[in-house]
Amino acid sequence: MPSLYTRFVSGALFPLHERLKHHDSVALRKQMERSQWLKPAELEALQLQRLNALLANVGRHVPYYRELFTREGIAAGEFKSLSELQRLPFLTKAVIRANTEAIKSDQAEGLARFNTGGSSGEPLIFFIGKQRVSHDVAAKWRATRWWDVDIGDPEMVVWGSPIELGAQDRVKAIRDKLLRTELLPAFEMSEAKLDSFVTAIRHKKPRMLFGYPSALSHIAKHARAKGQRMDDLGIKVAFVTSERLYDEQRALISEVFGCPVANGYGGRDAGFIAHQCPSGGMHLTAEDVIVELVDKDGMPVAPGEAGEIIVTHLATSDFPFIRYRTGDVAVMDTAQCPCGRGLPMLKEIQGRSTDFVITAEGTVMHGLALIYILRDLPGLTSFKVVQHSRERCEVLLVPEASFDAGAPARIIAGFKKRLGEQVEVEVKIVDTIPPEKSGKFRYIISHAV
Ligand SMILES: [Zn+2]
Predict the structure, then answer these.
(1) DSSP class per residue in 2-51
(2) What's the 131 CA to ligand 1 centre distance in angstroms?
(3) Which three-class secondary structure state does DSSP give residue 144?
(4) How far is the CA of 339 from the centre of ligand 1 (A)?
(5) How far is the CA of 297 from the centre of ligand 1 (A)?
(6) Whole-angstrom distance, CA of residue 241 vs CA of residue 212
(7) How many C-beta neighbours within 10 Å does residue 400 have?
(8) How much distance in Å is there from the Cα of 5 to the middle of ligand 1?
(9) For labelling, which of 43, 178, 285, 378 has a CA lying 20 to 30 Å from the CA of 28?
(10) What CA–CA distance (Å, rounded) separates 129 from 97?
């Protein structure tokens, strides 16, 4: 039974907040709670209808696609089946970097700038419109409700946070308080910090945990080592996202916090792509995203085979993500989920894994603490961080012509601030960064943890 406060937040306060921000996630969420029960064929028909509407729109208002459709003789908005999507080229990070202005719609208003490191050490700066935000909020809200958690229920978010709080963040802090969301900055994992995280979670008694699997399992391990019980707080579910979830992490988090672990897959760039339901199915947000799996030649893989995840987000007319290459690999699940939802499912997402690094003083720190310094730099094609020892760290950069000559000095200062002033940080400009011997690209490697 939701508490009175939760009913007030989800029924009144949050809808008001969304209306003030010109989002319509409340109506969208209600719609999506109906459409999740549609049959697969009905969902496909809905996808095709929305795809045609998106293509017709971007063919008129987005210079990059207007030119492309003219050049290729594509009648935008007249596809007869979803497979015709294959007539369009992939959207890579390099294409977005080279055409950022031409990808903005001439009708876009209030675009927000974001960045991501992706899974491959290839940073990307991109834009998101209000329509897209509403859809992602609605999709996440629907998924939490699968687990009997609503907006307004106390929530503990274990996440990276910027060092300085700007004005925007103070507004967010007030909003978070009203919505009963509390942030634990997860970058620094010192003993003292871990103690304070355990205390904060015990005090908050959240209905839901949300965070990186690596960070949540780190906290779980610490609580267990200290003999501190965490399974008596009434936590309903631990939502994990942003990294690959390993079986041993799932088992540890679930055991220590006494709750199931729900895996989610998505990102700021590609959107809220898939989420696990209580029956275990990793359901796609099929109303909003079309997912294709392709082989190394860009051709669709056979059912049951692994392929790179290609995403078309249907709510992105302001800054389109059409056939966007994520670099992540998955297998499509052909089974039917026992929950009865018609939303198709992914299985075995072989996504990114983030290494921890260690400071000169021995504090374990999430690798994203360093990545955040790099990924917002314009004109950077790719990067790799190698921590050779507590005393020495190497940063490889592949820049473009527009890369700021002053950036390496700022990178060194930022790394020293996080790792310790005495640490030697060496920035090297290179032409390419080869993958590891395993063939997999790892963008952060520590030999010191
Ligand atoms: Zn299900």
Answers:
(1) --HHHHHIIIIIHHHHHHHTT--HHHHHHHHHHHTTS-HHHHHHHHHHHH
(2) 26
(3) helix
(4) 4
(5) 32
(6) 6
(7) 12
(8) 29
(9) 178
(10) 18
Distance 283 CA to ligand 1 centre (A): 7
- What is the distance in A from the centroid of ligand 1 to the CA of 147? 11
Tell me, in angstroms, the distance from the centre of ligand 1 to residue 144's CA: 13
* Mean pLDDT (whole number) for 5-26: 74
Distance 219 CA to ligand 1 centre (A): 29
Quick one: DSSP state of residue 133? H
Residue 167 binned pLDDT confidence (cut-offs 50, 70, 90): very low
CA of residue 146 to ligand 1 center, whole Å? 9
Tens digits of residue pLDDT in 238-249: 999 888 888 889
Count CB neighbours of 200 within 10 A.
14
| 343 CA from centroid of ligand 1 (Å) | 8
Q: Residues 257-284, buried b or exposed e (16+ Cβ, 10 A)? A: bebbbbbbbbbbbbbbbbbbbeeebbbb
DSSP codes of every residue in 394-418: EEEEEE-TT--TTHHHHHHHHHHHH
345 C-alpha vs ligand 1 centroid, how far in Å? 8
Tokens of 23: 């989002």
Q: How far is the CA of 288 from the centre of ligand 1 (A)?
A: 17
Q: Tell me the Ramachandran region of residue 22: left when phi exceeds 0, alpha when psi lies from -120 to 50, beta otherwise.
A: left
DSSP 91: B
Look at 173 and 356; give whichever has higher pLDDT.
356
Rounded distance from Cα 277 to ligand 1 centre (Å): 5
Biggest CA–CA distance in the chain, Å, is 67
Pairing state between β 181-185 and 188-189: unpaired
Alpha helices in 116-226 (DSSP H): 130-146, 167-178, 191-204, 213-225
List Cα–Cα distances, 332 to 245, 329, 428, in angstroms: 17, 10, 40
Band of the pLDDT at 164, cuts 50, 70, 90? very low
**For a pLDDT cut of 70, what percent of the chain falls above it?**
90
Residue 165: pLDDT band with limits 50, 70, 90: very low
Q: Kindly give the distance from the C-alpha atom of residue 344 to the centroid of ligand 1, in angstroms, as a whole number.
A: 9
Query: What 8-state DSSP symbol labels residue 447?
Result: S
Q: Could you tell me the distance, in angstroms and rounded to a whole number, from the CA of residue 166 to the centre of ligand 1?
A: 40
User: What is the distance between the alpha carbons of residues 72 and 48, in angstroms, rounded to a whole number?
Assistant: 20
